[in-house]
Structures are given as structure tokens and as C-alpha cells.
Amino acid sequence: xVMLLRDPAERTLSAWRHAADRGTEKRDLVSAIGDWMAKYRxxxxxxLDNINPVAISVYAPRVRRWFETFGRENCLAxxxxxxxxDPPAVMPGVFEFLGVGPARLTYGDVKATAWRRDAEHEKLxxxxxxxxxxxxxxxEGLVGQATGWSGGSDP
Length: 155
Prior knowledge:
The chain is mainly alpha-helical. The protein is 56% helix and 5% strand. The protein has helices at 8-22, 29-41, 53-56, 59-70, 80-85, 87-98, 119-143; strands at residues 2-5, 76-79. The protein has a two-stranded parallel ribbon. The chain is globular and about 50 Å long. 18% of the residues are buried.
């Protein structure tokens, strides 16, 4: 199992943006994220079926369940941000984990869908990074590597 994990603050902000673009989220960014965070705080942390965008971005409990179910040796956590930044540096480890020989792949330009954030959005990103910090550090302990995400350990 290859688990592609993205910075949870970025993932949560992106979930709002995509829902707003599709018209399924009518609240403004700050209200939606605030509501999602409140609902997560009020929920059972053991409820891994919770699909709230904040709950989904708390990776450690889900990764722990995958390790327990499938065995740590059968799971690989891949930092999506590192993959998007430098695919040739990340993919050899994925190929090795999968037990396949080196692949001759051409990596095109990886274009992340960046969006402009104003000061309010930057403040919210920092709040989310603080919120996710304990879970990020727990995840880093589970997978045995620093993520480089805000709120986590230094890489």
C-alpha cells in the first residue's frame, strides 16, 4: 500500500477550495474551516469513518490502522509535497518498495495548483499548522521520517 500524504493544512485548504469551486461549499473559507475544526474537536477521535476534511487530514490514526491491518512492512508513506517537488528523487524508493526494477520515466513539469492567499488565509494556514502539529509529529514517529510540514519536526 502506497500512502500519498500531503501537508494537512494545505490539504484542508484545498478541500475547501475545490468544494467552493464545485458549488458544494457555500461558506467562506474561514467559516468553513472553523466549523470543520469545531466538529472534529467535538467528534470521537477514534471515528476513522469521519469524512470531515479536517478529520481526514489527521493522518496518524489512519496510518496506524493501515499498519495494524496490513503490516508496517506492506505500507509506504510518501510525502506528496516531496514527490511533487522532485519526482526523480522520490520515485526510486517507491519502485524499490513495490519490488519493480528501475523505470525509465520522463517526468513532465509538475504543476501544483497554487492559489493566492491573502493575509487572512495565511493566518488560517498558520492556525491549521498549529492544530495539526501534534498529529504531524505523531505521524512522523509512525513513519520514521520528518515531513517538513509546518507544525512538524524539522526535516
